[in-house]
Design a protein that fits this description.
alpha/beta; 357 residues; 15 helices; single chain; globular; Rossmann fold
Length: 357
């Protein structure tokens, strides 16, 4: 049997959705049809223009950590959504879930329809949905070695994280072109970024650090909601920092930068790895299961960066680590480049084809 159509789910947050979107792009390249099932309240709905003709968005609610009323509502929606999804799986040869409660109806219906189910886990510490669905899965794809300890599946394949085509193609940009387009100087450049929404902690840290590092320049992705506040807080004496509220051209930013100071979501880590951009990781301390710390720790152990807990990241220590990254940049760059596989979408699709055929 040929793999001609795949049902795909995973969303609620960008960390679940964007790897799914990258995988869908690969399906298009291979002329494999797909149907995407997302949450009408999740971030995926904002990006529906990319997959509008082959997607359905259902009202879904989370279950974990909720009160009895919210749990009852979530269960009712799960039943309703599962009935909807069940009817959509006609002609589907395989399913793949990228995490989040958004993927639960597809996981359940794949079991009922006897459709091979595959799971991709982005983070070092798996989410509840992927753990629950594992028992029904034909194979688990994973990004970080640490996550293996949470699964018992006999088929475990380390793929890394699927990355979008535009991001991969952006690596061809020359640094000279990037700095010209950004309007910055040709000098040591630090990228400060707190994830897709920005992080006020990283933003303020950047201002403090760059006030002291006069021989460096910085690109600071503030996030749209923090941009005006940071603009007001930026001291007039600090002329070596460029504020960027948000960008859809992240490859340009990566190519202009020498190192990064960043949170450690799976998407951020995978993108920095692809671009060979070493980082000082300051993990978000409230991430579920402390997964950002374990994401970053694996990169540190592979020689690709340095990890500092937020509570220990005073300005003096951060500057010390930045200087260390610059002093040994070639070593750290090689380490992070080799820390993760870079062909996740190819490996996943090939494995699914082999399994089906």
């Amino acid at each position: 049997m040929n793999l001609s159509k795949i049902a795909i789910s995973g969303g609620g947050t960008g960390g679940h959705f964007f790897p799914a979107l990258a995988f869908m792009e690969k399906c298009d390249e291979e002329n494999i049809d797909f149907i995407y099932i997302g949450n009408s309240k999740g971030i995926e709905y904002k990006f529906r223009k990319y997959i509008e003709d082959r997607s359905v968005f259902l009202p879904m609610e989370g279950y974990a950590g909720k009160g009895i009323f919210e749990k009852s509502k979530a269960l009712i929606l799960l039943v309703k959504n599962s009935l909807t999804v069940y009817k959509m799986l006609e002609g589907v040869d395989a399913s793949v879930v990228f995490g989040g409660y958004t993927g639960v109806p597809l996981g359940v219906c794949s079991l009922l329809k006897k459709i091979p189910l595959f799971i991709h886990e982005q983070n070092s510490v798996p989410g509840v949905a992927n753990i629950k669905l594992e028992r029904f899965a034909s194979c688990i794809f994973y990004t970080f070695e640490y996550s293996k300890k949470f699964f018992k599946n006999t088929c475990m394949i380390r793929t890394g994280l699927p990355l979008r085509k535009v991001l991969k193609e952006g690596i061809r940009i020359k640094r000279e072109e990037a700095i010209k387009k950004l309007g910055i100087e040709d000098k040591p450049t630090i990228l400060f970024m707190g994830g897709s929404q920005g992080a006020m902690y990283i933003n303020k840290l950047a201002l403090e650090v760059m006030e002291l590092l006069k021989d460096f320049q910085a690109l600071l992705i503030t996030g749209n909601k923090h941009y005006e506040d940071i603009k007001r807080l930026l001291p007039k004496s600090v002329q070596n920092i460029k504020l960027i509220p948000f960008t859809e051209n992240i490859p340009l930013i990566y190519r202009a930068s020498h190192i990064a100071v960043a949170r450690a979501g799976a998407g951020t880590v995978a993108e920095l790895s692809y671009y060979g951009l070493p980082a000082l990781f300051i993990p978000y301390p409230y991430a579920s299961g402390d997964h950002q710390y374990y994401n970053a720790k694996e990169i540190e152990e592979r020689g690709g960066g340095i990890v500092v807990r937020e509570e220990e990241a005073d300005t003096k220590r951060v500057i010390e680590k930045i200087e260390k990254l610059f002093s040994h940049r070639d070593f750290f760059s090689e380490g992070i480049k080799n820390a993760l596989p870079s062909d996740a979408e190819d490996t996943m699709l090939k494995t699914m084809k082999d399994f089906i055929e």
